[in-house]
Amino acid sequence: MAEDDLPRLxxxxxxxxxxxxxxxxxxxxxxxxxxxxxxGGKFKAHKSGAEVLEGRLAGQRVVLVKPRSxxxxxxxxxAGAVRFFKVPLDHLAVVHDELDLPFGxxxxxxxxxxxxxxxxxxxxxxLGSREYHRVRFGIGRxxxxxxxxxxxxxxxxxxxRKDLAFEVDRCADAVAALVGQGLLAAQNSFHAT
Length: 193
Hints:
Elements: E1 8-12, H1 27-39, E2 44-45, E3 50-57, E4 60-67, H2 75-85, E5 92-98, E6 106-110, H3 118-127, E7 133-138, H4 148-152, H5 158-181, H6 183-190
Parallel strand pairs: 1-4, 1-5, 5-7
Antiparallel strand pairs: 2-3, 3-4, 6-7
Helix pairs in contact: 1-5, 2-3, 5-6
């Protein structure tokens, strides 16, 4: 199979279950759900330990992935999906929350460190490589002395919720740009905003 025929794997990170649905840590799931609406299908349980949806986005074959494990152990299902769909790591993009960016800021990159993000740490360990794309969605820093681990497991605040649907939509646009146009074009479009 030629590399252009291989799907792009887009992973949204989050924690399963209704208790976590509105948490800052679940922004990857929210973006994956928006992408699923665009692709036009429903996620289905997969033997990789994730929910997957195959379709087309920005003219490319994509597989949307939501690990069914908790964030800190998401590496196993992600690595399982990478193996099952036989995608090279440069065809993998992980959408996740980022404390070091203000709310709604979007940054895309290839490779790099995990910056204390346990979901990314688990994925890197399971893949044995850091060379995959990241779509980072800013959630801002916790107020005062609040523990970052507690902050990410809290729901978005009322002010953030007013703009959340718009920002999720914009992040889905960034993923579509990455899939359809490549990293540099996506960075040029979304890093300026």
